[in-house]
Structures are given as structure tokens and as C-alpha cells.
Amino acid sequence: MYNFSYRNPVKLIFGKDTIPELRKEVPSKKHILMTYGSGSIKKNGVYNQVQEALNSFQLFEFGGIEPNPQYRTCMKAVEVVHQHNIDFILSVGGGSVLDASKFIAAAAEFDGEPWDILSKSVPVKKALPVGAVLTLPATGSEMNINSVISRKETGEKLAFASPLNYPVFSICDPTTTLSLPERQTANGVVDAFVHVMEQYLTFPVNAPLQDRWAESILLTLVEQGPKVLQNPHDYDSRANIMFSATMALNGLIGLGVPQDWATHQIGHELTALHGIDHARTLSIILPAVMKHQREAKKQKLIQYGKRVWDIDESDENKAVELAIEKTKSFFKRMGVPICLKDVNLTPDDCRQAAVQLGKRNARLGEHANITSKKVDEIIGLAA
Fold this sequence. Notes:
Blueprint: E1 11-14, H1 22-25, E2 31-35, H2 40-43, H3 46-53, E3 58-62, H4 71-83, E4 88-94, H5 95-107, H6 115-119, E5 130-136, E6 146-151, E7 156-161, E8 169-172, H7 182-200, H8 208-230, H9 235-248, H10 262-274, H11 278-292, H12 298-309, H13 316-333, H14 351-359, H15 372-381
Parallel strand pairs: 1-8, 2-3, 2-4, 4-5, 5-8
Antiparallel strand pairs: 6-7
């Protein structure tokens, strides 16, 4: 196991009827900016709950944040922050709204061109505090330091991370997810699943506790994901998925172990180029990465197959192949694509992803040995 240090200051408030606790958690005498997306929170009652909880606070609003939050939208919100002297941002929505809110919080306090935070990895030295009411479990943003922002004008989707991005608190009420469309529900389960795989499916470093934490999340998602598609109003399944998504990317299972993230980085390029849902780029690319890296990942692939899918196969190559096929079968059960053909694309349509990563001299994977040439090979395997 590698050395590590870990601190996670987020106060997680989990369960039904917890939104009213906002009035205790939001600092008093603050100018609050509530950020949200397309307006679904006004249909499912969350907006009214937040308004009621904060009726004695000075509350401003900024809506219209996209599923893949755009830089120009975030910068419009920064103007609102400056105009109204905002000193606390409350994200109400899914991971995209929270990712945008984190960037807005950093950009509003940044000296210089805020895009440099993403494109040049300029460190964030100041940021407004952020709180969250989560309505779509997927990204784990409610309990981590990460944010991903897109810029349509340049065809880029880039990430940044800063300890100043930890939400002060995150309220996770599974009842807010009961009305989610099937597509968003499935995407959330798959996103969380692949978050775990990025931290787990690498190579052994004698970290059995982290491995079993990761496997327990995978098993829960495999069990609960199809169940919630069959019965969308099953509160317990919704709650288990919501907590699994949080635990998948709050840093815990990644402590002291190597991490991959090649699937995500390639997936980000496909979203930027073709507008494919983030989770669906992951379900397309992960099986291809598993195939391409099957030798480097062999021992963990065999362990994964045995512990998650009960694969009992003495032939190691067959065990690896079965593990990959079981993963694809799970994605099919969740109704997401598993190859480029499923989204009406060919590898030739997606070659630009490798070019873009090559321009940034990206070297992906836990061994940092996946060059743009190998990205091109992975895209070919995703046909």
C-alpha cells in the first residue's frame, strides 16, 4: 500500500426530509446565490423546499446550468456573484450544477483569466464557500474536490481539483431522485460504477481493505441498479444508489492505491466532440480499455471477475474475457451503449479525441503509458 494523507471536511446530511436543515447549515447574514439547472427542481418540489427553508435569508438565483456545464454559462454566474456581492453559493441539482458551482466559486475570486484554472492548472488560492442539495446521484461531487467544465467554442472538457472546492455541507435526500427519468438514473449508476473501476482496476499493491470497499460498492450498484429501473419509486434502492455514488468518489477507496482515469479522460473528449452523455462515453470506453490493458490489469481483472461476478475459471485468459463480458452485460441491463456503433459513430468519427489528447501531451493510465497512439487503438476497440 502507498503512503497517503486523507481529510474530508464535508458534512453529509443524508435521508428523507432533510432539506429543511438548510436553515441551520447556511451561514446567517450571507448573500446566497442558489444555482440550478433546467428547472426540474421547480417541478419536483425541491425549489419550494429550499425557498421555504431560506425564507429569512437574502437569496439570489442563477438557473440554466447545462448537463455538461459550459464555461460561458459559469462566467455569466460570476457576473451575478460580483453584482450582488455573493458570499455563499448553494448548488441545488445534480453533479453538473455542483461542478459549475465549484468553478464559479473559484473563478469569482480568481486574479486573471479563469479558464487558466482548467487549461493551465493554475492553482486556486481563494474560493467562495459552497453548499449542496443533491438531486441526482452520479459524480460524487457532493463530497469531493473535483469539477469538470466544458467549453463549446474550443471543443474542450477539462477538470480541476482544489481542497477549497469541498462543499461545506451536502444534503442528500433520496426522495428528490424518485422522479428522475430512466436515462438519468441509469447514467448515474454507470458513472458511479466506473468511478470505482478507475480506482480499483489497476494492479495489486496489497491493499485488501480498499479493494473490498470498492468491491462492495460495485456489488451494491450491480444489485440495486437494475432494481431501481424496474421500480423507480423504490426509496431504499434510490437511497442505496445515492450513498454508493457518494462513496465511489469521496476519496476513501482510492487511498494508498494506484488509479487509472484513462476511461474518463477519453470519455471527456467524446463528450466535447459529439455531445454524448458523460456516463455513456464511459460505458463505451471502459470495455475497450479493459481489452487494451488486459495484460497490465490481468491480476485485478481476475480478482474483479471472481469477487464481483462469481467467475470460477482456472484459465486466466478466459477469466479475464468473462469479466469484460459480464461488465458489458451489466451496462446493457442498465440500457446504456457499450460500443460506438450503439451511438451511431465509428472509430474514424472519434479519432480527433486522440489528437486532442496528443496536443496536451497526455499520458494516461495508472502507468502513464497510454499515449495518443494507444488512445487511438482503444477507440478502435470500442467500435
